[in-house]
Write a structure and sequence with these properties.
globular, D-Maltodextrin-Binding Protein, domain 2, 12 strands, alpha/beta, about 35% helix, single chain, binds arginine, 2 domains, 5-stranded mixed beta sheet, 3-stranded parallel beta sheet
Length: about 260
């Protein structure tokens, strides 16, 4: 074996064993506390996002998973991954759970387990303020539409005939493209669109009222970990019964459900 090959093989072994030792949900070596490795695509305010200059990830999902982890006796460690990398990360056990505004659907259920639903959402559209031609989803025909890659928005827009779909990495990229007139509409989850328009002071764009789908968010877990699924569901129920879920909900969405 050439020297560089040896070095490469050695490095590969180190990486592999480091991953195994870090273990999924295993005993944290120094803290003595169990670690829950969480995957999330930190690009989806108010569910998961990071304010400029701030270290901490924040949002509804982040508060919820920290509360769930505490309830289950885990220390929560969040890894920022691209949205379309979350299910692969669960499949190769890089993470124990994924919480990322992820919609529960049959296609995903072939590859992962989901917790009970924890939030109701669905898809809406954002267009420029001066947009005349697009008022309903059926108006999208003949237009360019941006969606985040790997999402239910991408799935749904592909079903609409005659649309030129632009699959981008993040919702922020989609909004940037809309403002730059590279696309005519963005399809994305309603609470995220609303937050973008109302809270982040977006200008020149508006959200349309029509809802294309009704979707439930769930926490995703590896297909073979029914035990974890049970624990997560029990903890979720506890948080709902104790009123803690409602507190987190009110913090991000106001009192109304
Ligand atoms: N609810 C949609 C889906 O499951 C979009 C989720 C996107 N989440 C994110 N953190 N970017 O496909």
């Amino acid at each position: 074996m050439k020297k560089w090959m040896k070095a490469f093989a050695l490095a590969a072994i180190c990486v592999l064993s480091a991953v195994t030792l870090a273990g999924c949900g295993g005993q944290g070596a120094d803290s003595g506390k169990k670690v829950l490795k969480v995957g999330s695509s930190i690009d989806f305010a108010p569910f998961e996002f990071q304010d400029e200059g701030q270290k901490e990830y924040q949002g509804f999902d982040m508060d919820l998973i920290r509360a769930l982890g505490k309830e289950m006796g885990y220390e929560v460690e969040v890894n920022n991954l691209p949205f379309d990398g979350l299910i692969p990360a669960l499949q190769n056990k890089t993470v124990d759970v994924a919480i990322s505004g992820m919609t529960i659907n049959d296609e995903r259920k072939e590859n992962v387990l989901f917790s009970d639903p924890y939030y109701q959402a669905g898809l809406t559209m954002v267009v420029r303020d001066d947009e005349q031609a697009i008022q309903k989803f059926t108006d999208l025909k003949g237009h360019k539409v941006a969606v985040q890659i790997g999402t239910t928005s991408a799935e749904e827009v592909k079903k609409i005939e005659g649309v030129e779909i632009h699959e981008l990495n993040t919702p922020a990229d989609c909004f940037t493209e809309l403002k730059a007139r590279g696309v005519d509409a963005v399809v994305n989850d309603r609470p995220v669109n609303d937050y973008y328009i109302q809270k982040s002071g977006a200008t020149g764009v508006k959200a349309l009222p029509e809802r294309l789908t009704a979707e439930d968010y769930g926490i995703a877990m590896p297909k073979d970990n029914a035990e974890l699924q049970k624990k997560v569901n029990e903890a979720l129920k506890k948080l709902k019964d104790s009123g803690e879920y409602d507190k987190i909900y009110a913090k991000w969405f106001g009192e109304q459900k």
